[in-house]
UniProtKB/TrEMBL annotation:
Residues 8-93 form the Glycosyl transferase family 28 C-terminal domain. PANTHER family: UDP-N-ACETYLGLUCOSAMINE TRANSFERASE SUBUNIT ALG13 (PTHR47043). This is Glycosyl transferase family 28 C-terminal domain-containing protein. InterPro entries: Glyco_trans_28_C, UDP-GlcNAc_transferase. The lineage of its organism: Eukaryota, Viridiplantae, Streptophyta, Embryophyta, Tracheophyta. It holds the Pfam family Glyco_tran_28_C. One of its GO terms (cellular component) is UDP-N-acetylglucosamine transferase complex. One of its GO terms (molecular function) is hexosyltransferase activity. GO terms for biological process: dolichol-linked oligosaccharide biosynthetic process.
Length: 117
């Protein structure tokens, strides 16, 4: 295409019982903020933008996504900010997820009111 940006290939679906092949083939993943989807993508080392469903009550997805975004493992967006997030993202900014669940477990414990010990 004109402008030197290269080509864009987009695959999308509403549900897949086996998402692993899609994730491995992707150069960027845009997903809902479910913990399984997030961690499966992060473990594969793929850049990730999570879009939080604001209609959920007690939105734990938002808290986990915000924490992982603060740690620079992913980008966090809402439906109305997704286009801006894509336009402004810098994939070099992201830090690979170390695969250690301890920080996330501590976050969940704090959320539930348990000690960090």
């Amino acid at each position: 295409p004109e402008g030197g940006y290269g080509s864009l290939s987009l695959d999308y679906f509403t549900f897949s019982s086996s998402i692993a092949d899609h994730l491995r083939a992707a150069s960027l993943v845009i997903s809902h903020a479910g913990s399984r989807s997030m961690f499966e993508t992060l473990r594969l080392g793929k850049p990730l933008i999570v879009v939080v469903n604001e209609d959920l009550m007690d939105n734990h997805q938002s808290e986990l996504a915000e924490e992982l975004a603060e740690r620079k493992h992913l980008y966090y967006a809402r439906p109305q900010t997704l286009c801006r997030t894509i336009a402004n993202m810098n994939l070099d900014y992201l830090i690979p997820y170390p695969g250690d669940a301890t920080p996330v477990a501590k976050l969940i414990n704090r959320f539930l009111g348990f000690s960090d010990d």
